[in-house]
Amino acid sequence: VLSSSLPRLVREFVAQNNTSQIKHVIQILSQEFALSQHPHSRKGGLIGLAACSIALGKDSGLYLKELIEPVLTCFNDADSRLRYYACEALYNIVKVARGSVLPHFNVLFDGLSKLAADPDPNVKSGSELLDRLLKDIVTESNQFDLVGFIPLLRERIYSNNQYARQFIISWILVLESVPDINLLDYLPEILDGLFQILGDNSKEIRKMCEVALGEFLKEIKKNPSSVKFAEMANILVIHCQAADDLIQLTAMCWMREFIQLAGRVMLPYSSGILTAVLPCLSYDDRKKNIKEVANVCNQSLMKLVIPEDDEMDEAKQSMTLLAEPTSEESLSKPEAASSGESLSELDITALNQPLSFPCSSERIQVTLNLDGIVQVLDCHLHDTSIGMMTRIAVLKWLYHLYIKTPRKMFRHTDSLFPILLRTLSDESDEVILKDLEVLAEIASSPAGQTEGHGPSDSSDVRPGLVELHVPGRAGQLSSSGTKGLECSPSTPTMNSYFYKFMINLLKRFSSERKLLETRGAFIIRQLCLLLNAENIFHSMADILLREEDLKFASTMVHTLNTILLTSSELFQLRNQLKDLKTPESRNLFCCLYRSWCHNPVTTVSLCFLTQNYKHAYDLIQKLYPLGVFCETGLEVKCILPASPSSSSPLADLRLQLLDVKNNPYLIKALYGLLMLLPQSSAFQLLSHRLQCVPNPELMQTADSTKPSAGFKRMTASNIDYTELLQHFEKVQNKHLEARHQRAGRAEQLDRRVVL
Predict the structure, then answer these.
(1) What CA–CA distance (Å, rounded) separates 378 from 380?
(2) Among residues 430, 501, 410, 422, which one has the least CA distance to residue 461?
(3) Beta-carbon neighbour count of residue 728 at 10 Å?
(4) What's the rounded mean pLDDT across residues 566-571?
(5) 104 C-beta neighbours (distance < 10 Å), count
(6) How many CB atoms lie within 10 A of CB 313?
(7) d(CA 321, CA 263)
(8) Which candidate, 577, 559, 546, places its Cα nearest to that of 731?
(9) Domain edges within the chain
(10) CB 86, CB 33: distance < 8 Å
(11) Cα 391 to Cα 394: distance, rounded to the nearest angstrom
(12) Residue 383, CB half-sphere, CA atoms under 13 Å: how many?
C-alpha cells in the first residue's frame, strides 16, 4: 500500500502546494510507523519515508529534518535488518535531496560514524554506499560548513574503534582534496587525534593516516605563511616522545619542517623540543632514521639562537620577525621588536591559547626561554642513563649558549658548575673534550667578570694569591657576541671563574685519584690548548702551595711536571722557562719552584729545564741529609738526560755535557744524582751516559779561552736562590714529618691487631 498509493498521494499534495498535509503524512510515518514498538511497523515506516522523499523530489529539501530524524533513530535499533533498512532509506532520501542535505551534515556524519563500526556486514556495506554518496555531494558542493563540522570531527577522531577510525581518516582525506575547503586552518584541532590513529594496530589504517599526514605536510610546505605553527608545537613535542616508532619518526619529521619553516617562532618551545630530541641522538642503528631526523632538528634549533638574544633582560627582550619566511637566511635574521611571552613547552593545555602564525603583513614577538632550556640541559647531564651522543649534544648546547648569550648564561653558571666538573669523570674522551670546552669558555669569557656573576663560593677564591697574566682582548664584550657556532675559544681572558675552576679541578683530582691517574694529564693538556697554559700552571702551583694533603700535592706536582716536560702543547711555556730574562718568566719559575718543592725529583728537573745547574747541584746536596731521595729514585729515570728519547726537553743537556768547562755544575749535579741513586736501571742509564763525558783537556781548541757562544748563565739575576733553597728544606721537612706520622699510625695499628 505504501509503495503504490503513498507516492501518488504525496505528489498530489505537492501539486496543490499543501505543505501541512505533507508534514502530516511524514509525521504519521514517523510517529506511528518508524518509531513504533513493532519491528514490522518500523520497517514499513522506513520504506514509507524513503518513498515520500522520492515523491517530493526537489521539494524534499523543505522536509529533510522531519524525514531524516526518525531514520537516524533507527540506526540504533537492536535488529540488524532494521538498521539496514534505515541505511537504505536514508540513502534514498539523500540521493534525492543531494546538496540540500548539507545543513544536516553533522547529524548524518554522526550516524554514519556509528554504522561504520556496526558488527553486521550487510549494515556496514549499506553504510559504505551511503558514505560514498555523501562524499560525492560534499565534493561537488561549495556550501559545506567546515566551521560547524570541526567540533564533531575533533570529538570523533579520538574513537578507539578501528572501523570508526578508518571512516574518520577517509573523510579527512576527502576534505583535504577539495580545493574550496581549507582544512589546514583547523589542523591544530585534529593533529593530536591523527597521531593517535597513526598508532593503530591495523596496517591499513596506519597507512591511510600516514598518507593523510603526508598530504597535510605537503600543504604546509606550500603555504607556510598560513600555518599555525605555534598551536601545533606542543602536540609534536608530545608525539616526538612516543614509544611507537612510526609515530615518533613522523612527529620528528614534522618538527624538523616546523623548525626550518617557522624559524624563531619555535623558540618559545625550545625546552620541550630538546626534551624530545636529545634522547633520540643516542639511538642505535635500529632507530637510525629517527636519530638522523632528530639530529637535524637539534642543529636547526641551535642555529635559531642569535647574539641579539643576549642584548636585553629577559623580561624586556623580544624579537620581531616577518612572519612569512622566504628563505632559511631570512628566518635567521629577524628584526628587532617589543616584548613577548613564552609558552609552556610540555603543557598541552597551552593549546587552548592559540598563537596564530600571522600573514606577511603582520609581525610576531618571540622570546628565548633560556631558563627552560638550561633546566632541560642540566637535567640531561644529571641523568646517568643517557647515551654518549646525547651528553655531547647537551655540552654543545651549553657551549653555544655561552657563546651567543654569555650574560644570561652566567646567571646559571653557579648551578651548572658542579655537574660540569663531575662530567670530567665521564667514560668518553669526546664527552670530556666538550665538557672542557664549556668550562674553558666559562673561565675565559669576559661576561664572567660582570658584577653579580662571580663565583658563589667566595671561600674558594683567594684574591691576591697569584697574579695571573691576562692577555688583552679587543672589545671586552660586544653586544652581539663575537663567536660563531663552531668556533673555538679565542685568546682567553681570565675571569672570576677561572681561579674557582682551578681550585675545584684540583679538589676533584684529590678526591678521585683514579681520575687523576687515568685522565689527569689528558684534561690538563687539553686545558692548556683551550686556555692560557702559563695561567693554568701559575694558578695550580699557587693552590698546591697551600695544599694540606702533602701526599696529593706531591703526586699532583709530579703529574704537572711530567706534562710540562713531555707535552707538545707546552712547547712555548718550556721555552719561556729556559730563558729567565723577563720578570714574567722569573715570576713563573719562582711560583712553580715553590710548589714543585713538594716533590724533590720535580724540583731538580725544573732546575735542569730552566738551566739553573748550580742551584740543582745545591738541591742535590740537601737531598741525602733529608733522607727523601731513596724513596723517589724510580722517578728519576724520566728526567735524566741519559733517557733514550731524543725528543725529551732535557735531551739538549747531552750536548751541554760536551762543554765541560762552561757547565761544571751540570756535571756535578748529574754525578750527585748518580751517587744518591740505588743500584737500578736509572743508575745504570745515568752512569753509562756520564762515562761519555769527554776529558776537558781533549776539548781544548784555539778559541777555547773565549766564552762559549752557547754559554748559559749559571744563575738567573733577580732570583733569591738562597731563599728558594730554604723553602725547599722547609717543605721537605714537612713531608718527612708527615711520613713519620703515617709510619707511627701504621705501627700502632699493627700492635692493636696483634693484641
Answers:
(1) 5
(2) 501
(3) 23
(4) 88
(5) 18
(6) 8
(7) 9
(8) 546
(9) 1-145, 370-448, 496-695+718-744
(10) no
(11) 5
(12) 16
Residue 342: DSSP 8-state: P
Greatest Cα-to-Cα distance within the chain, rounded to the nearest angstrom: 147
Q: Hey, which residues does 319 pair with through a beta bridge? A: 336, 366
Closest Cα partner for 381 from 402, 364, 395?
395
Contacts of 194 (CB under 8 A, 6+ apart): 157, 172, 209, 212, 213
> What pLDDT does residue 358 have?
39
Cα 445–446–449 angle (5° rounding)?
110
Length of the chain: 755
**CATH, range 1-145:** 1.25.10.10
CATH topology for the 370-448 domain: Leucine-rich Repeat Variant (1.25.10)
Residue type, 609: L
* Cα 121 to Cα 160: distance, rounded to the nearest angstrom: 19
- Write out pLDDT tens, residues 389-445: 999 999 999 999 999 999 999 999 999 999 999 999 999 999 999 999 999 999 999
Distance CA(465)–CA(193), nearest Å, equals 65
For residue 481, give Cα distances in angstroms to 77, 400, 610: 72, 11, 41
Element (H, E) at 60: none
- Exposed / middle / buried, residue 737 (Cβ in 10 Å: 0-12, 13-18, 19+): exposed
- Which residues does residue 148 pair with via DSSP β-bridges, in sequence order? none
Q: Print burial letters for 646-667: b (CB count within 10 Å at least 16), e (below 16).
A: eebbbeebbebbebbeebebbb
CA distances from 73 to 34, 36, 391 (A): 9, 11, 60
Helix (H, G, I), strand (E, B) or coil at 320: strand
Three-state DSSP at 512 gives: coil
Helix axes 664-676, 681-690, angle to 10 degrees: 150
Q: How far is CA 150 from CA 104, 165, 189, 209, in A?
A: 14, 16, 8, 18
Does the global pTM surpass 0.90? no
Query: E strands along 28-154, which residues?
Result: none
